[in-house]
Fold this sequence. Notes:
It contains five helices and 19 strands. It is mostly beta strands.
Amino acid sequence: MMRAKIFQIMLCAAALAGCVSEGAQECSVLYFTYTGDGDTEILPEKVDRLDLYIFDAQHRVVVERPLTPTELLTQRATVPLPAGGTYRAIAVANAHTDQLRYLHEGTFADTRIYHPVVHPDIETGSALADSHDHLYLGSSVVAVPASGIAEGVVELKSSHVEVYVELRGFGHTENDPSSRAGGASRAEGDGSVGPVVELQHAELPAWTDFENRTSLNEAFEEQEVMTHHPGVQVDADNRVHEYNVMRDVLRSTIYLTDPTGKEVFALDLGQFLDEHPEIDYDAQEALVPIRIEYKTVGIEVSIPEWAIQDVTPEF
Length: 315
């Protein structure tokens, strides 16, 4: 334990020395943490990229950079901040596809994190959104004293919900990664053949801001929405859609449509969650598992057995 503390002190001292050697007059140290739904540090397991943005009291961006591999490994970064100022540090984790807008306009709270297909002026190779990133956000106010050295802790919080939709008994589309694409599948234990369907998840929040509020937050007059068209994996006779959405999904709807776009089935996700309180939607690592099954008596919706047993599905 003592060796670990000494090692941490040495790392911090080395980081400060590096900051000074770069010509900075004042150096402050930021620490980054994420414990999810427990009290154990799990940031290294959940985060593979961390971008840092620091605003001064006039809402100007004074630091804008990704953490280096070493900083991400040690969960600390050293930054030059002038003495006597108060700053807000924002950490954005895992923004690989999602992109920032309005970073240099207004206050830090005016910055938005969008999926690029929402705005045509953001270059993207796809016309449809399939999933958001595994986003996490953290914010901390750092007051730098006259000495010019401050420390701050940025605690990350989840900005996404993972959705897992298992379709049983429905036909396979020509886009499915399966040799049986375009054919029909049979529902387990029922024998009925279902129609070919595509899945869309609509009325989802279009963005999250630097305060971890989505576009559907009641604080915003214009509540911008978007639709996901998630990719599919084929497992035996099941089609599985696994994707991330931003955290406000209570007013969203999952649609199944036929190849002509005609609605086959609609699931009100807010109602589904009300009927299944065992799903902890408010958890940091929230997972919404859904099974939609076609049977001769109609379409049934339930929770997969592995979710009830708290077992992670195999792919």
